Amino acid sequence: MQRFEYKVIPAPKRGEKARGLKTTEDRFAYALTQLMNQLGAEGWDYVRADALPCEERVGLTGTRTTFQNVLVFRRIIESARPEGQAARLLLQDPAPAAPRLGPAEAPAPGNAPALGPAKPGLAAE
Fold first, then answer.
1. What is the separation of C-alpha 56 from the centre of its chain, rounded to a whole number of angstroms?
2. Is residue 109 part of a domain?
């Protein structure tokens, strides 16, 4: 069974300037690409983007709900079991049962020569 750890980060709110990027959409896509490539190099896989509610204070006693855009990433974490224990568990799993066969039929009588011990000095060719 694979286990994952998750990382949730705020989505970029504005794009980054780069040579050849003129529009807001291109700059935003570039910022997102840079962020995803950086996390991908650290072993994180992109899962999804979410807009989640967040309560924040307004004034002394008031609150309001805003929505925060976040990016969700995950990566596989190493198993908590030592390798030897995992190998032992694999060995302990019962093998599937072989199909049971009925009794063997008696060989048909024939003219086959009787076999006995090998004679010294004769080699198989």
1. 37
2. no
pLDDT digits (tens, 9 = 90+) for 48-80: 999 999 999 998 889 999 999 999 999 998 765
- 18 vs 107: which has the higher pLDDT: 18
Say how many residues make up the chain: 125
Number of domains, the chain: 1
The answer to whether the beta carbons of residues 32 and 12 sit under 8 Å apart is yes
Is position 102 within any domain?
Answer: no
Could you list the residue range(s) of the whole structural domain that residue 44 is in?
3-77
How far apart are the C-alpha atoms of 18 and 34, rounded to whole Å?
11
In a domain, 113, yes or no: no
With residues binned 3-state (H G I as helix, E B as strand, rest as coil), the percentages for the chain, rounded to 5, are 20, 30, 45
* Four-residue CA torsion sign, 65, 70, 76, 80: negative
Distance in angstroms (rounded) separating the CA atoms of residues 6 and 56: 24
Joined together, the tokens standing for residue 59 give 């004034």
**Phi, psi at residue 10, to the nearest 5°?**
-65, 140
